[in-house]
Amino acid sequence: MTVDREKIRQKLQFMRQELRELKKFQGMDISQFQSNSLYEAAATRMLQVAIEALLDICAHIISREGWGLPKSYVETVELAARNSLIPQQLEDTYKAMARFRNRVVHLYDEVDAAEIWDILQNHLEDFRPFMAAVIRRYLS
């Protein structure tokens, strides 16, 4: 079965949109970020959605390529790395994203503003190599 290129395009576009909005928080002082609970809530949700888009793309490609049936998001990343969908050197980074997404959804009371702020300042670019790899392999 072939991958649905339009579905991948839509997910990538959605991821780009979320990342564009998240970049607005870059350079913001942590005290300013923590002083407004709406900043934290919006950033957390946008991060969750961007990560879910990444994982959805991986899951779609894994399914269509017949690479296996992952039982978790971390396993989804492992299968994607094993099949060179994602850069091997970033496998641990994307596993951390999957774990972070799970914490946001299930252990939301353990995620604090400082952690979100750190991701915003230091890790938004981690999405770029994935996006480039998917475009190169499936949309070029």
Layout of strands and helices, then pairs:
Layout: H1 5-22, H2 30-34, H3 37-65, H4 73-82, H5 91-106, H6 113-122, H7 127-139
Q: Count every beta strand, where a strand is a DSSP E run of 2 or more residues.
A: 0
Provide the gyration radius in Å: 15 Å
- Determine the strand fraction and express it as a percent band: under 5%
Instruction: Please describe the biggest sheet, giving its number of strands, its sense, and whether it closes into a barrel.
Output: none
Q: Alpha-carbon distance between the termini? A: 19 Å
Backbone structural class: mainly alpha
Poorly predicted runs are none
Q: How many individual helices?
A: 7
Number of domains: 1
- The CATH topology label is Four Helix Bundle (Hemerythrin (Met), subunit A)
Question: Under the CATH scheme, which architecture would be assigned?
Answer: Up-down Bundle
| CATH evolutionary superfamily | bsu32300-like
**Relative helix content:** over 70%
Helices and strands, in order, run as HHHHHHH
How would you describe the shape? Answer: globular
Q: What is the mean pLDDT?
A: 96
CATH class identity: Mainly Alpha
Protein name: DUF86 domain-containing protein
InterPro entries: HepT-like, HepT-like_sf, Type_VII_TA_RNase
Pfam family, one: HepT-like
Family: Belongs to the HepT RNase toxin family.
